[in-house]
Amino acid sequence: MEERLLKIGELARLAGVSVKALHVYEKKNIIKPVSVDENTGYRYYSADQFRLLEALIEYQDMGFSLDEISKILSGKCSKEQISDMFDEKEHLLQEKIWMLEARKEELSVMKRNLNSNPEGDRLMEMTDDERAWYLAKLAVINEAGVRQTLSEVVWL
Q1: Could you say which architecture CATH assigns to the domain 6-77?
Q2: What is the pLDDT of residue 154?
Q3: Distance (Å, whole) CA 7 – CA 76
Q4: Of 2, 19, 85, 126, which residue is the least packed, with the fewest Cβ within 10 Å?
């Protein structure tokens, strides 16, 4: 029984990517059509390539570049090389997590400062300059108030 091939638009729709993205993946030698009609130029893909495309999308979601994905999926990397790439990406993701946690804490401090200061109740009555000054004072990098100190110097 002959396997049904997917046109580029069908594959793109199924995978939730653009046709343009599939052309880029082809140029990067990541996913090439199994067949190209000589008369129409239509590109055809197999079900196995759909699975490969799903893997590509997953790697992109984890922050891998197309060049990195190409290396991983090419079969030219050893298990150790791929493991090293995973370690590096894991390290970068952990750094992002720490940065996001720090930003989340900043927001908590800003909210606490906003809610604990009665001056915040007058935000709508303040002049633009007063409001800018007040909101600038809320922006605190850490409990030591580094950002607050910097903004006070700038606003003086």
Answers
A1: Orthogonal Bundle (1.10)
A2: 53
A3: 28
A4: 2
Residues of the chain below pLDDT 70: 1-2, 140-156
What secondary structure, in 3-state letters, does 34-83 show?
CEECCCCCCEEECHHHHHHHHHHHHHHHCCCCHHHHHHHHHCCCCHHHHH
Furthest-apart CA pair in the chain: how many Å? 79
141 class by beta-carbon count within 10 Å (0-12 exposed, 13-18 middle, 19+ buried): middle
Q: What H or E segment, with its residue span, contains residue 6?
A: strand 6-7
∠ CA 66-69-75 to the nearest 5 degrees?
Answer: 140
- The ranges assigned to domains in the chain are 6-77, 99-155
- Pair 86, 68: CB distance under 8 Å: no
Amino acid identity at 6: L
Give, for 7, the enclosing helix (H) or strand (E): strand 6-7
Query: What string of H, E and C letters represents the secondary structure of 100-123?
Result: HHHHHHHHHHHHHHHHHCHHHHHC
With H, G, I as helix, E, B as strand and everything else as coil, classify residue 134: helix
